[in-house]
């Protein structure tokens, strides 16, 4: 069953993404632990889409889509930006980055999910979670 929402690029709309995650997790009976991983991953991806992908342009949209396929929850977040070089992401655990306050979103998403795929030159991220 697919679910879809489209948000204007405003950091205040991250709360709408959080509610979207709440509804999905309630509908699928997802555990609290997995809920936390999904919530952090989605909010990080939505924030990246708003800030980096759409450059905080309120005239651009962020699209969040979820689907349940073969015991996997798949959530995609896409923006209207040109994408980025997802093959060259600085390691936030490297000594030179350890004290930086930014640059941890993709690292968190990769560590909290069961799979991450970048599409459309990086303007879309597909995050996969295995459901128990």
Give a structural overview.
This protein has about 130 residues and is of the alpha+beta class. The protein is built from 3 helices and 5 strands. The relative contact order is 0.20. The model has no long low-confidence stretch (mean pLDDT about 90).
Strand order of the main beta sheet, please?
1-2-3-5-4
Distance between the first and last residues' Cα: 18 Å
Low-confidence spans: none
Helical proportion, percent range: 25-40%
Radius of gyration: 14 Å
The secondary structure category is alpha+beta
Silhouette: globular
Strand content: 25-35%
Number of separate strands: 5
Secondary structure topology:
Elements: E1 3-8, H1 14-28, H2 32-53, E2 61-69, E3 72-78, H3 105-112, E4 115-119, E5 124-130
Antiparallel strand pairs: 1-2, 2-3, 3-5, 4-5
Helix pairs in contact: 1-2, 2-3
Features:
five-stranded antiparallel beta sheet, 132 residues, alpha+beta
């Amino acid at each position: 069953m697919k679910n879809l929402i489209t948000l204007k690029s405003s950091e205040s709309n991250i709360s709408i993404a959080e509610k979207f995650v709440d509804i999905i997790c309630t509908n699928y009976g997802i555990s609290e632990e997995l809920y936390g991983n999904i919530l952090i991953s989605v909010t990080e991806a939505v924030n990246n889409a708003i800030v980096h992908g759409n450059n905080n342009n309120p005239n651009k949209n962020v699209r969040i889509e979820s689907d349940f396929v073969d015991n996997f929850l798949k959530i995609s977040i896409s923006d209207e930006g040109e994408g980025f070089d997802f093959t060259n992401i600085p390691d936030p655990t490297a000594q030179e980055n350890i004290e930086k306050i930014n640059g941890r979103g993709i690292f968190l998403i990769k560590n909290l999910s069961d799979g991450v795929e970048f599409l459309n030159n990086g303007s879309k991220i597909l995050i996969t979670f295995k459901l128990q």
